[in-house]
Amino acid sequence: MNIHEYQAKELLRGYGVPVAKGVPLTSADEAEAAARQLPGPLYVVKSQIHAGGRGKGKFKELGPDAKGGVRLAKTVEEVVSNVKEMLGNTLVTKQTSEAGKQVNRLYIEDGADIDRELYLSILVDRTVGRIAFVASTEGGMDIEQVAHDTPEKIVTVPVDPSTGLGDAELKQLIEAYKLDGAAAEDAKSLFPALYKAFTEKDMSLLEVNPLIVMTDGHLRVLDAKVSFDNNAMFRHPELAELRDVTEEDEKEIEASKYDLAYVALDGNIGCMVNGAGLAMATMDIIKLYGAEPANFLDVGGGASKEKVTAAFKIITADPAVKGILVNIFGGIMKCDVIAEGVIAAVKEVGLKVPLVVRLEGTNVDLGKKILRESGLDVVPADDLDDAAQKIVAAVKGN
């Protein structure tokens, strides 16, 4: 689960992390009062959407010359003007689709005098099986670009879970950032506070870009991106209140009700697969044959008929889907259950696009028999390669 910047900062503030004072708002009528709560004379008006690259983004309604989704203002009047222009419009960034995201919330924050911009993130480094800090002196930039152009400027510091963040790791981070004086002293309390927040709240990502050294020598978290591990949410009912469903795809919300692993994509071939690895391979082979997947969908190893039916309905509800590929390798999952679920869904919502089904594994013969005798216009496939070629050809009208 992702949360907004202002929510992340409020959470981190509770751990003693230095963040600027700010006020969230959802209406232009709140803009003047919000700005007057801040000391000024510099204000920052920030779009609150679940996507990065906001500052370089463009509002679809405002034209190519308009300012982006993060703006500086030097007066209260300028704050109000920016709020009126930004709120309710659609921001397109490098991390959104071409459709962009409507800005329904803004965050008015006190400005900062910046000396240096740094990059910091905490994540689960699966190469070492530990939580790790990722540090770079190149803050305010795309970390992917830094990794590509100057990988030597990125330092990864794993943390031993049995001892936590100790003096040795703190020294590595301070040296990686080239901190001294007040900034080095701030780091000794800031980095442990961030690590504590990450572990106690079961985060999967805590990204600060930029972490700044201000002209007075102190550190401040200028931006904060936080994602939580969905598998641990049962331990944190208080975090559920932070969820903003308006930032999520409606199909993904529906899928979460059935415990389906679903991610909407930009293609036109809907996929229903069991197993994350097989789902990734299915998407790859669709791309190999010149088409694009419309989704990632893993129904899991032990899905019921009802779960499969729900998955199929979610796929068919996407108007971008022009064909569907069902790819099941039955281990725990039984092929006949998949077949029954598909038939139930088709009877309920109809079938208006080509459907290719590849079944293999447990009860495969029964599953194929059920589909064959259903009367549905199903195209059978012998293997994944055959299935991918057939659905791509069907969608392209070949």
Automatic annotation (TrEMBL):
It catalyses: GTP + succinate + CoA = succinyl-CoA + GDP + phosphate; succinate + ATP + CoA = succinyl-CoA + ADP + phosphate. Binds 1 Mg(2+) ion per subunit. Mg(2+) binds at N209, D223. Keywords: ATP-binding, Ligase, Magnesium, Metal-binding, Nucleotide-binding, Tricarboxylic acid cycle. It holds the Pfam family ATP-grasp_2. One of its GO terms (molecular function) is succinate-CoA ligase (ADP-forming) activity. Its EC number is 6.2.1.5. Belongs to the succinate/malate CoA ligase beta subunit family. This is Succinate--CoA ligase [ADP-forming] subunit beta. The gene is sucC.
